[in-house]
Design goal:
The protein is built from 14 helices and twelve strands. The protein has 392 residues and is of the alpha/beta class. It folds into two domains: 3-149 and 325-384, Adenosylhomocysteinase-like (Rossmann fold, 3-Layer(aba) Sandwich); 154-320, Rossmann fold. It has a seven-stranded parallel beta sheet with strand order 3-2-1-4-5-6-12. Strand 10, helix 11 (279-287) and strand 11 form a beta-alpha-beta unit.
Length: 392
């Protein structure tokens, strides 16, 4: 059996194609076009069963696959990939390989751990939090999180994952009337907040209102330029307020401290390390009876708050789940991750070094496939109708 068939033997027993329509379309196309023939492709998405769908699409396209080891993984999936001969590698191991003259062609990264490598063609970064690792990149870098597609995962899937995490720990059930405090008004924070509204929570979001105003001005002036500063983080305060969510400025420490002390649930989703480490907030964080959680890759609470005070020891709460984010919500993100790798190959002779937005035609194609053929088509349409996009 070849690797594509081996992966199919697992995936086809678990998923229907309407849960991953975009990746299914790429796999079908690439089986014939083989855009990655002869290329070594390192993929560093978190190693879970659902991300094997991206591996399969790339292998169908001819990729010689390597999997980048992540701190977030399912050990059984890691073992499975190794058993079938797929290298599961760390950044240090890859740097050692480079010292022997062994380079990969493409790096499909997630949160930046493999930004230290020197691929022959370039990088695709999946997350906003990984962008700063590429600010001085000497190769082309497509940033999947700078476009609209990633919003399906972060606005719909991550909010769902937060509440499923609570439920797995026996902290769910009836959320009606519960006070939910969310730090961050970007894609992830707004997704959690709106999911909380749908579940009957009284939701307040804490954000940097001045930064949100500054981003709006910057996005109007930046046009199509792409730097680590102009890559849009997104702020949806206005949308949140339209949905009955109270929005509070993070610099109003007295108000924020009071909210922490009186909430039932507190969750961080700013993507910023030590975002809550201000001395004015530490006492409230240490004394509150609220259930504390984090949904970002960084420790947003700061060193003063012990890990045991926060669910999953400050790691992203949804990563306690077998599927941190349901495949139906990450299909388009993973498909964009892979499709941008194909575009790098196509443009290898002309694309300039540095950061690049995803081409709109690729995003629109994947969105159309997901809406027409995906089980969450109606959810995507509802999201796009209620949340502004960088394309507007």
């Amino acid at each position: 059996m070849n690797l594509q068939s081996i992966l199919s033997s697992v995936l086809d027993e678990v998923y229907e194609k309407n849960e991953y329509p975009a990746l299914a379309a790429l796999e079908s196309e690439w089986t014939h076009t083989r855009p990655f023939d002869g290329l070594r492709v390192l993929v560093a998405t978190p190693i879970y069963r659902n991300t094997m769908t991206e591996y399969r699409a790339l292998v169908a396209g001819g990729a010689d696959l390597l999997v980048g080891f992540s701190e977030f993984n399912d050990p059984d999936v890691v073992d499975f990939m190794r058993e079938w001969g797929v290298p599961v590698v760390t950044p240090a191991e890859m740097l050692e390989a480079e010292s022997r003259g062994e380079f990969v062609d493409l790096v499909l990264d997630c949160a930046g751990p493999f930004a230290v490598l020197h691929p022959k063609i370039g990088f695709v970064e999946l997350t906003r939090s990984g962008v700063h690792y590429y600010k001085d990149a000497e190769k082309p870098v497509y940033v999947a999180d700078s476009g609209i597609v990633k919003r399906i995962e972060t606005s719909l899937g991550t909010g769902d994952g937060y509440f499923r995490g609570l439920e797995k720990l026996g902290l769910g059930g009836d959320f009606e009337g519960k006070k939910l405090l969310v730090f961050g008004s970007g894609k992830v924070g707004s997704g959690i907040a709106l999911q909380g509204v749908r579940r009957g929570c009284n939701v307040t979001v804490v954000t940097d209102l001045k930064r949100g105003q500054s981003q709006t001005a910057n996005s109007e002036n930046a046009e199509h330029s792409a730097t680590s500063e102009t890559m849009p983080a997104g702020d949806f305060s206005a949308v949140l307020e339209q949905n009955g969510v109270d929005v509070v400025d993070c610099h109003d420490y007295a108000a924020v401290a009071s909210l922490i002390e009186n909430s039932d649930f507190v969750v961080t989703a700013t993507g910023v390390k030590n975002a809550l480490a201000a001395p004015e907030l530490q006492k409230s964080l240490l004394s509150t009876s609220a259930v504390l959680a984090n949904m970002g890759v960084e420790d947003e609470y700061g060193e003063t708050v012990p890990a045991e005070k926060v669910l999953n020891d400050k790691g992203p709460l949804n990563f306690i789940l077998e599927e941190p984010t349901h495949l139906k919500y990450i299909d388009t993100s993973l498909a964009l991750h892979a499709a941008l790798a194909e575009r790098l190959v196509q443009e290898t002779a002309t694309l300039e070094d540095g950061l690049h937005f995803p081409p709109q035609e690729i995003e629109q194609r994947l969105l159309t496939i997901a809406i027409q053929n995906g089980v969450i088509g109606p959810e995507i349409c509802s999201m796009l109708g209620g949340i502004p996009t960088e394309m507007d």
